[in-house]
Amino acid sequence: MAGTALAGLLALFHLELGADLIVAGIGLNILAQGLTVLLMAHLTGDKGSTASLTSFAMPSLRWPGMDGVPVLGVLLNGDGDAGHNVLVYCALAAAGLIAWALRHTVFGLRLKAAGENAQAALAAGLPVQRLRYAGLLLSGLLASGGGVFLGMGYLTLFQADMAAGRGYLALAAVFLGGRRPLGIVAAALVFGGATVMAARLGLLAVPAEVVFMIPPLVTIAALVLVKQHQRLAARRRAAAGRATLLSS
């Protein structure tokens, strides 16, 4: 509910008041960081965490018969063989469902049209403003699932700055994945792998500064490589177009 409400506020600023989507999103993120701590201090008297409250966890799903299976057992059930949180599977299912819906449903195709070419969508008689509101509200609902996982999966409490910049990595994953659902999943897996590698190195005699640098460095390197690939592809298309014109 909170994620959807904030997305509604973002939609209001962007669609009605003309605010830049990224700038308004950063502003709301800063607001949420302060507001959550304020509410926590008011409700619990503690500005650090909600450890004084009884917190619940979402259940984990464990695949039976994977004990001792190399690689696959760890992938499916984790290091401690306890399984993965149900929200992990919900996220993967949501990515597949969104990819299918954007390609094969009327609502998905209209939503893509409203986002990619609003003028053409308006000319076709589509309710562009309502579609954009729907897209932003749904994105807020889905993004809030990440917060639920942090507070009821990864941990069983809320603490200040528990996201630790993961939201910005998610934004980078959107651009790295070419704004396509399955590409974004692949980018998120790359960033997740970098985070796990940093955690593993933290157990060794590796300076903490180096460990903390790994996820952002992987993010920057991946974005640079993708941008270079896009430029090369654009040059190849331009060269092919010139060759076609010359031959004709």
Structure description:
- This protein has 248 residues and is mainly α.
- Helices cover 73% and strands 2% of the residues.
- It is built from 10 helices and 2 strands.
- The chain has helices at 2-16, 21-44, 72-77, 86-104, 106-116, 118-123, 128-154, 166-176, 181-202, 208-247, and strands spanning 60-61, 84-85.
- Strands 1-2 form a two-stranded antiparallel ribbon.
- The mean pLDDT is 84.
SSE blueprint and pairings:
Layout: H1 2-16, H2 21-44, E1 60-61, H3 72-77, E2 84-85, H4 86-104, H5 106-116, H6 118-123, H7 128-154, H8 166-176, H9 181-202, H10 208-247
Antiparallel strand pairs: 1-2
Helix pairs in contact: 1-2, 1-7, 4-5, 4-7, 5-7, 8-9, 8-10, 9-10
Tag the structure with descriptive keywords.
248 residues, 73% helix, single chain, mainly alpha
Q: What overall form do the CA principal axes indicate?
A: globular
Share in helix: over 70%
* Unreliable residue stretches: none
Order of helices and strands: HHEHEHHHHHHH
Count of strand segments: 2
Termini distance?
Answer: 59 Å
Biggest sheet: strand arrangement:
1-2
Q: Major sheet: size, sense and barrel closure?
A: 2 strands, antiparallel
Strand percentage: under 5%
Number of helical stretches of at least 4 residues? 10
Structural class: mainly alpha
Q: What is the average of the pLDDT values?
A: 84
Cα Rg: 22 Å
Gist?
The chain is mostly helical. It has ten helices and two strands; from the N terminus they run ααβαβααααααα. The protein has a two-stranded antiparallel ribbon with strand order 1-2.
